[in-house]
Every structure is written in C-alpha cells, then in structure tokens.
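Running co-folding for zinc ion.
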Amino acid sequence: MNKRCPTCGALYNGRRWIPKPDNQTVREYAKEGCRNATCPGCLRLERRQIEGIVTLRGSFFDRHKDEVWNLVNRVAKNKEKRNVSSRILDVAQDNGDTVIQTTDEHLAERMGKELQKAFKGNLVMKWQEGGALVRVFWERD
Ligand SMILES: [Zn+2]
C-alpha cells in the first residue's frame, strides 16, 4: 500500500520515499490509493532529532544575508529532493551568531562546504565521537 505524508506530501511506494513529488506522481499515487503516514523527515522534525549544527559567524554574513540564505536554502532543497529525512529543523540567533540545526549530518556538512566554496571564509567541522552529530562552523569577516 502506498503512503502519503500528511505534513509534507512525500509519497512512499513500498521501497522508498519520494520527497516533493510532482503533480503527475501525486495523481498516480492517489489513483492507486494512499494511506496517511508521517515520513521519516517529518518524524525527525517532530522528535527534534538534531544531526547537524551549522554556526554562521562574522560580519560578511551581516552584509550578505540574502546571498548566504539563498545558498543555504538551495542546499537544503537539493538535499531534501534526494533524501526525505534531510531537513532544516531550526534557526536561532546566539550571541550574534546564526545557528542552523539540521536533521541530517550530511546536510550540515554540505552547507559548510558550499558556503566556503561560494564565499571563501574559514570552515571547521567537528564530528561527535560515536554519534551522528556534526558541528559546522563557518566564519568570514
Ligand atoms: Zn513528511
């Protein structure tokens, strides 16, 4: 039986979740019949499962907020298209830093790498020993 996530609309066909399905796929699944089931990505958001913490620091970010956010959101969207579990959980301010929590360590890593590729700056990544948590620090003045 197919499943559909009532929160984000992802579809499941018995093998894998399809994040952000196009209209055609949604219609096909609806025709075959779907039951509601929360997808792994929305479950991680509900449980507040944090696998990555990305800290943005420095005056470059203050001067180029739009460009930086565009890149962060683009990375998140691309990642979610391939992996339904990969989400931004929360964004907060902490002593002038901007802190992004993600439900997927690979998303946090990718954000850090793409930020450095696009805007240079200093990138540090620290993996928690024995656990699926990465802390990513990106800084540019
Ligand atoms: Zn979902």
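Result summary
Residues 5, 7-8, 10, 39, 41-42 surround zinc ion (CB under 6 Å).
The CA atoms of residues 5 and 39 lie 5 Å apart.
Job closed.
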